[in-house]
Write a sequence for this structure.
């Protein structure tokens, strides 16, 4: 489903150049729940952003469902993100001017002709346990609830893949557990492909596979601990 | 098409939500700034337009009426004036006609009081116009402009009415030493005409037409009196000029050609052709008006740009998130465009309401007392529409440019600033 080939990412120029990714090779199968782990500045978030089409690699290839993503135009990538991908950020990423319900159905508004998106958003909010918060604004709910709203928003267009960048980093233990349980539920019940960056060792128990990144390279992609 | 409609729907959705949840005071400030920018565009040009309109109407009402029939180029007088007047008044679109018989007169006051013949008295040379007072009332407003005494009557022969700039006094704009020094009704003046005839008149009235260039520098006697001065046998049926008042809505250009057939050889012109000095003043005003309007528009555009730019910058991260979750670039841009259009529309509406309901009524009740007349705001609908379009276009640019510049940044930079 996701194939990453010889992916490089270099930030800066000249002496200030930083090699974030140095030739990553990776495959993720449909329905997998994968954690990308590694030390700080190892390149895991960079890899996730490139796979989530938020950033461009310096060189290399990225295929999703056999489509060469790097050959798509900006508007085609936006359309792909809207229809096929979901993205959950580490920090608060809700639109402050929209209610919880509006935040969730926002990506569906662009899909003109798609009826019942409000009902669908309400259903998803029920799944994430926030059916009583639909009319609240983001600043009226807790950080854990905000993150669950962000997950609900990422799911509204029924994406093939859900990317999550340290989704529990800013949450307390209980909220983090709720979010990870939710990911597990989505993965197990809906066969949702989930790619999650995390630095919490305990998160390993929730995922099918851990991909370890070290200094811009995949150290191992098939075991749950580094070589 | 479906995508376009989807983006449009999303743009309106985001714009309305942003305005609804945004800071109320900031919204009020933006709309008030827009409103005052619009008023600034309209007010100054309306004043200038009011000046131009007042000056134009003064020229028509006090001096020229609408059309002027002048003698042929090689003659000083129009022959058979009565017949021409009678025919002209029959033409469709003509409201009234009045012939003028004009002579230059040396006018003196207080000459009886001087002790020695060489003693200088208040005097000057002005044009004296012989009129039929009743007919004149149909073409000019001199009869309605009396500030002292009364208007002439047809059979007055020893009476004269003077423009305020001849009589002098508190209302005159001309320096006192160039006038008769403030004489009034009942005083005597002596007029020495260019043909040597000297007449004494009692001042029957003083008028102030507020047309300081020409009308208020004229003196009027009855036509009967002027004919007797110039020579009854030759001048009983002559005129120096014939003023023609057209009905409202009549085409002056069409009537000029109609009158050519009635008064062959005579020169027939519209009042506009005589307003040389005025026209140059007015065209200068028009240039000033355009400069002020353009500057106002530029200032309004810059103000809107700054406001919207700050607004967009404060939402840079939010724009990045919208793009990250796949909201099309056009929809995000569209939302700022819609917001700018809403600000502009609300501002224009508020500005227009303030103009119509507060400022314009105020100036109708309290017109500005200019030397040439009472001045009210004259709001031209063309200017109004032009200003609204200009301000809207400025708002659109002010909304698009900042959001476009943020949109050009990478998603990563917009969200995380790296």
């Amino acid at each position: 489903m996701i194939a990453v080939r010889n992916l490089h990412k270099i930030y800066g120029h000249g002496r200030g150049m930083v090699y974030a990714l140095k030739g990553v090779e990776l495959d993720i199968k449909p329905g997998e729940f994968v954690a990308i782990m590694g030390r700080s500045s190892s390149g895991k978030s960079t890899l996730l952003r490139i796979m989530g089409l938020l950033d461009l690699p310096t060189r290399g290839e990225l295929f999703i469902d056999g489509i060469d993503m790097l050959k798509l135009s900006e508007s085609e990538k936006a359309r792909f993100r809207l229809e096929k991908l979901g993205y959950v950020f580490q920090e608060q990423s809700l639109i402050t001017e929209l209610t919880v319900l509006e935040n969730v159905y926002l990506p569906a508004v662009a899909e003109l002709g798609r009826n019942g998106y409000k009902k669908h958003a309400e259903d998803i909010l029920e799944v994430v346990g926030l059916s009583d918060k639909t009319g609240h604004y983001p600043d009226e709910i807790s950080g854990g609830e905000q993150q669950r709203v962000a997950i609900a928003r990422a799911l509204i267009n029924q994406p093939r893949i859900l990317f999550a960048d340290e989704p529990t980093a800013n949450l307390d233990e209980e909220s983090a557990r709720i979010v990870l349980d939710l990911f597990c539920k989505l993965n197990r019940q809906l066969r949702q492909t989930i790619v999650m960056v995390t630095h919490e060792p305990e998160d390993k128990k929730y995922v099918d596979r851990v991909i370890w990144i070290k200094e811009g390279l995949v150290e191992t992609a098939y075991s749950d601990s580094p070589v | 098409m479906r995508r376009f409609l989807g983006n449009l729907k999303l743009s309106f959705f985001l714009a309305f939500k942003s305005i609804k949840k945004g800071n109320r005071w900031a919204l009020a400030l933006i709309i008030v700034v827009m409103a005052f920018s619009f008023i600034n565009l309209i007010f100054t040009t309306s004043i200038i337009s009011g000046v131009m309109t007042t000056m134009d109407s003064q020229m028509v009402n006090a001096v020229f009426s609408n059309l002027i029939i002048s003698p042929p180029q090689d003659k000083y007088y129009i022959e058979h004036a009565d017949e021409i007047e009678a025919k002209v008044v029959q033409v469709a679109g003509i409201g009234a006609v009045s012939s003028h018989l004009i002579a230059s007169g040396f006018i003196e006051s207080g000459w009886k009081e001087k002790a020695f013949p060489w003693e200088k008295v208040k005097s000057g040379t002005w044009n004296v116009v012989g009129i039929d007072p009743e007919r004149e009332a149909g073409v000019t407003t001199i009869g309605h402009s009396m500030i002292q005494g009364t208007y002439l009557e047809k059979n007055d022969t020893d009476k004269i009415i003077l423009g305020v700039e001849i009589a002098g006094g508190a209302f005159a704009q001309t320096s006192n030493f160039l006038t008769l020094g403030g004489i009034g009704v009942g005083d005597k003046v002596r007029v020495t005409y260019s043909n040597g005839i000297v007449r004494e008149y009692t001042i029957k009235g003083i008028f102030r037409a507020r047309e300081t260039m020409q009308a208020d520098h004229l003196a009027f006697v009855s036509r009967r009196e002027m004919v007797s001065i110039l020579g009854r046998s030759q001048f009983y049926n002559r005129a120096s000029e014939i003023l023609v008042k057209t009905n409202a809505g009549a085409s002056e250009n069409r009537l000029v050609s109609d009158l050519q057939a009635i008064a062959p050889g005579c020169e027939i012109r519209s009042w506009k052709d005589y307003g040389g000095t005025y026209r140059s003043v007015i065209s200068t005003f028009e240039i000033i008006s355009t400069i002020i309007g353009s500057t106002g528009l530029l200032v309004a555009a810059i103000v809107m740009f700054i406001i919207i730019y700050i607004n967009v910058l404060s939402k840079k991260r939010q724009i990045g998130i919208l793009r990250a979750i796949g909201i099309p670039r056009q929809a995000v841009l569209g939302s700022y465009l819609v917001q700018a259009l809403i600000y502009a529309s609300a501002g224009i509406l508020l500005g227009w309401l303030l103009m119509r309901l507060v400022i314009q009524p105020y100036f109708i009740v309290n017109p500005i007392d200019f030397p040439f007349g009472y001045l009210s705001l004259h709001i031209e609908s063309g200017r109004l529409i032009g200003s609204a379009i200009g301000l809207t276009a400025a708002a659109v640019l002010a909304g698009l440019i900042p959001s476009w510049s943020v949109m050009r940044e990478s998603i990563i930079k917009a969200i995380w600033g790296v």
